[in-house]
Amino acid sequence: MNTRPSAGDSPHLVAAFYRFTALPDFRELREPLQRRCEELGLLGTILLAAEGINGTVSGPDESVRGLFEALGADPRLAELPYKESRAAEQPFHRMKVRIKKEIVSLGVPGIDPAHEVGQYISPEDWNALISRDDVRAIDTRNDYEYHLGSFEGAEDPHTRSFREFPAWAEENLDPDKDRHVAMFCTGGIRCEKATAFLLQLGFENVYHLDGGILNYLEKVDPDDSLWQGDCFVFDNRVTVDHDLSAGDTEVCPACRMPVTAEDRASPLFEEHVSCPRCHHRLTEEKRQGLLERARQIELAEARGERHIGQQQPTRKD
């Protein structure tokens, strides 16, 4: 398990984890896992499917350790690795264990990273790999994530969800010409599944960043880093920087997508209401509702309370 030191002003430990492993009884696992997380006082989201587990939770250090001890009682989830970061405030509003068809939605039948997957590349070896002229470095995340930050020289497939990646790959990658393809994502799950997909298409040399961007930011010194910008995360922090501290990006109240400084400078940006992406499709009724919610949030904060209506970024696998 990871032992990243605690930051004194960031009491909440955030743990992101996944594993591709056969869980035919995943439906039966949901209720006991939900109950255990609630007993430990954890907040976050965990997805269960026949292909494995995927989640991010946050809480006191001892509660997070307690969860992984409980998960480790199942041999299929023993010694489950996870990436740690810190949050000054609780980044989630509730705890949800959800049943899904896939723990990350690619939408292609027969893809099984538990049995066939690309080569894992450690953060320490990643720079050398993606700096090679014969390697195509592909960001498997969505377009809005790419624009907040990515690796120097990495390609943006311009996908709005991970389910669009297979079509992009079939149209833009060629196993006869692209002899080496390196892929990455936030925590490793999307790029791991993407390598399994490319292997099915006949690619021979496919690689993915072990532990994803979060592992790279933890392990690689900023002075040696090829990472540029912030990394989007699916909780109230919205982004984290190279030190894994919360960034200054906000989330749009209407479409729940990240709002950058450039977005805020647009004449289509309206505080507490909408961003340039969704301004044109917002009804007046919805606009008034968002303004009222903002007022209720301010009132709750004045009372020293957390308003349950505050939004987290939308997860689009």
Automatic annotation (TrEMBL):
Membrane-traversing stretches: none
SUPFAM superfamilies in the record, alphabetically? Rhodanese/Cell cycle control phosphatase
Q: What class of enzyme is it?
A: oxidoreductase
- InterPro entries, sorted: Rhodanese-like_dom, Rhodanese-like_dom_sf, TrhO, TRHO_N
Task: Give a GO molecular function annotation for the protein.
Answer: oxidoreductase activity, acting on paired donors, with incorporation or reduction of molecular oxygen
Q: Where is the Rhodanese domain?
A: 131-225
Gene3D superfamilies according to UniProt: 3.30.70.100, Rhodanese-like domain (3.40.250.10)
Known EC number: 1.14.-.-
User: Which keywords does this Swiss-Prot/TrEMBL entry list?
Assistant: Oxidoreductase, tRNA processing
A single GO BP term for this record reads: tRNA modification
Catalysed reaction(s)?
uridine(34) in tRNA + AH2 + O2 = 5-hydroxyuridine(34) in tRNA + A + H2O
> What's this chain's function?
Catalyzes oxygen-dependent 5-hydroxyuridine (ho5U) modification at position 34 in tRNAs.
Similarity annotation? Belongs to the TrhO family.
Which NCBIfam families does this entry report, sorted A to Z?
A: PRK00142.1-4
Protein known as:
tRNA uridine(34) hydroxylase
The protein's organism comes out as: Elongatibacter sediminis
Name of the gene this protein is made from:
trhO
